[in-house]
Amino acid sequence: MRKELSRKERLFCDYYSKTRNSREAAFKAGYRILPERAAEKLMSRKDIREMISQLDEMRKAKTADISAGLRRAAFGSIADAIRLMFDENLNPEELDGLDLFCVSEIKRPKGGGMEIKFIDRLKALEKLQSLAETEREADKNPFVEAIEKSAKAVFSGE
User: Fold this and answer.
1) How far, in Å, CA of 65 to CA of 63, rounded?
2) pTM metric for this prediction
3) How far is the C-alpha of 81 from the C-alpha of 119, rounded, in Å?
4) pLDDT per residue as tens digits for the range 14-46
5) Mean per-residue pLDDT for 112-123?
6) Which residues contact 9 (CB under 8 A, 6 or more apart)?
7) Which residues, in sequence order, are CB contacts of 81 under 8 Å at separation 6+?
8) 17 Cβ contact partners less than 8 Å away, ≥ 6 residues apart
9) For the chain, what are the domain ranges?
């Protein structure tokens, strides 16, 4: 068993993790001659499958972090921003404890007062929905999809 994957093998793992298409991943990684056969050989190796699993887990973690941030932007409280606006006696320790995640900009105009702009919640919700749709697409199994399409074709012909 090899200790370290070659550059082409790492590229294959990365492309496969993104596309779930072994032939396409092999071709993009540089296996130009008979990419189907190269993909089959690569997928039969335990170290390749382990690398793909690791990449999948990293992608899930990144997606979870993004999703959490978008949820916080879409549904987060603005209470601390309002407190900042109206409480003129906040000390530095209290300022550090304020949750201003949903704030995109704070201004103090020359005439006095304070302007606070918030993150666009509608955009955050749209991005969250888009991310959820992308996750659903990635979770689909091509084999199951093929069976579903075949079943629809059979039943629609009746």
Assistant:
1) 5
2) 0.52
3) 12
4) 999 988 889 999 999 999 899 999 999 999 999
5) 92
6) 29, 42, 48, 51
7) 98, 100, 102, 103, 116, 118
8) 52, 55, 56, 59
9) 1-75, 76-138
